[in-house]
Amino acid sequence: MKEGVSRLFDSHCHLDRLAPETTAGAALSAARRAGVGGWLLPGVRRRHWPDLLAIAAADADVRAAPGLHPMMAAQWDDSAATELAGLLQQPECAAVGEIGLDGMIDIPRRLQETAFHEQLQLAVAAGKPVLIHCRRAWGEVLAILRRERAERVGGILHGFGGSPQIAREAVDLGFVIAFGGPLTYPNARKRVEVLRGLPDDAIVLESDAPDLPPHPHRGEPNRPEWLPLIAAKVAEIRGWDSEETARITTENTHRILRRQSQPGNEPWT
Length: 269
Fold this sequence. Notes:
The chain is α/β, with parallel strands linked by helices. Helix content is 39%, strand content 14%. The strands form two sheets. Strands 4-5-6-7-8 form a five-stranded parallel beta sheet, with helices on both faces. Strands 1-2-3 form a three-stranded parallel beta sheet.
């Protein structure tokens, strides 16, 4: 890539869950050759949190976002809270995620809500933004974000499939909206409508690799190197060129992740 040209930022990439034959280092190298220059690694299971931090510690362009996915809410207890609070003090940790509510899984809502509330509280206390996972529970998620005053840290709505109205409410709370592979699918009308209605500073990119590959790779394990296919679709819909898309979406991601910086503590660049 030419010097001075903006690189893409992947705000949601599961480098700890790639195919067994693919190492994180190889995936990062391939993505760099494709024009990607930053990655945020969300947590799902507690036992994988050390893996996230280790990958981030080995590469200056990678940061971790440990947290418990709603489908793992039963793992949340005092011990998990203590461990997560400690990890949030590490320099490799830039956010908490992916956390939220999921109305499509067979996990009791009370467990999901407890894990969500308490992880939000830890994030706010540590000054870390949050990565939000939500399916069929947007009203409840927004209510909890307001109750915990999550606007103090902001964050990213991952895999967003909600309405334009929900997107606007989230943006008003200091959140940005991530667009991934589903935006490239022929039936992506609602996502296209949401993207068209957002301000420039509310748009970021995500691969969600190894899940949700972009067209024309549906049915294959997703790769971080395919993020430019998503960026190209965003550019088409917004009327941007490739450089504008990279610059705007990367600046937006950096802005969100720098919220945790304290006086005397240089932000991640």
